[in-house]
Amino acid sequence: MSDQKTNHDTRDRILDVAEQLFMAHGYEGTSLRVITNTAEVNLAAVNYHFGSKEALLREVFRRRLAWLNRERLRALDALESGAGGAPLKPSQILEAFFGTLLRIGEDEALGGMTFLRLLGRTLTDPAEFIRTFLAGEYAEVIERYKQALFSALPDVPKAEIVWRLHFMLGAMSYAIAGTDVLQVVTGCELSDLAGEETAGAIDDTALARRLSQRLMPFLLGGLRAPLPGCLDSVPHVPPSEGDAEPQTQRHLQEKQP
Q: What distances in angstroms separate CA 127 from CA 28, 54, 124, 177, 202, one per listed residue?
C-alpha cells in the first residue's frame, strides 16, 4: 500500500469519526483527544491533515457541501433551461433546493442522516467561525435561488420572500437536527405522536424519506401563506397546476374564502 493511499485512508477515517462525534456531542463537546482515540490515530495525524479542530470541522462540512452546492446549481440550471426563460414554479425551486438536501439522508456515501443531523445541529446553534464559513459556502447558491424565487413570485415583495426563505431554512434546520427537544417536552417519540407504527427501529433511509414527505408540503404551504396584514385575503402565492400533491392542493384551496 502506498504512502499516498495510507494518508488518504487516514484522512477519511478522521473525517468520518469527527462527523459522527460532532453530530453526537456538538463542536464544543468533542475534543481532539476523543476524535484521535476513536479514529485510532495520533494527534500528529490530525495536525498534519487539518491543523486544528476548527479546520477539521470546516473540512467535515466542505467535503459534503461541495456535492450539495454543485447538485443544487445543476438542478436549478436544468429547470431554467427547460423553462426556456419562463419563471419556474415555486414548488420546483423548493424541491431543487430543499429536496436535494434531504436526498443526502438516503445515501450514506453522501453522509446520510449523520451529516443531516450534524448540519441541522450546527445551523441551529453555530459557532461564529462556522457561521462565517457556511455563509461563504452557501453564498452563490442562496443568491441563485433567491433570484429564482423573485422571478417566480413577481407580485410578492422581495423582502417578504427573503423572510420566508429565512423561515423555511429555520424549519429545515430544526427538522434535520433531530427530535430531542420534542422528546424532552412531551416525553414521547415523534412517531408516537404521529400515530405511526414503530415495530422495530426505522432505518435512516426510511427516516429521510418520511421526513421529506412531510416537510416539503409544509415548506410550500408556508411560502404560499397570506402576506402580513392580509390574513383574511386569498394567499398571494396561489398554487399553480402541478405545484403540489393533489390532496395538499385541494386543502389549500378549501382554506381560501
A: 9, 10, 10, 16, 32
Residue 90 C-alpha from the chain's centroid: 18
Per-residue pLDDT of 11-56, as tens digits, reads 999 999 999 999 999 999 999 999 999 999 999 999 999 999 999 9
Say whether 136 sits in a helix, a strand or coil.
helix
Whole-prediction pTM value?
A: 0.79
Question: Is residue 233 classed exposed, middle or buried when 0-12, 13-18 and 19+ CB atoms within 10 A define those classes?
Answer: exposed
pLDDT tens per residue across span 56-101: 999 999 999 999 999 999 999 999 999 999 999 999 999 999 999 9
Which element (helix H / strand E) includes 118?
helix 112-124
Cβ neighbours, 10 Å, residue 35: 21
* CB-based contact 119:61 (threshold 8 Å): yes
CA 10 to CA 56: how far, in whole Å? 13
- Residue 154 C-beta-side C-alpha neighbours within 13 Å: 4
- Burial tier of 23 (Cβ tally within 10 Å: 0-12, 13-18, 19+): buried
Cell, residue 223: 411560502
Query: Are the beta carbons of 232 and 205 closer than 8 angstroms?
Result: no
The torsion of the CA quartet 57, 60, 61, 65, rounded to 10 degrees, works out to: 160
Domains (range + CATH), the chain: 1-51 (1.10.10.60), 61-255 (1.10.357.10)
As a whole number of angstroms, the distance between CA 164 and CA 223 comes to: 6
Closest CA to 177 of 103, 116, 107: 116
CA 251 to chain CA mean position, Å: 26
Note the Cα 147 to chain centre separation in Å: 19
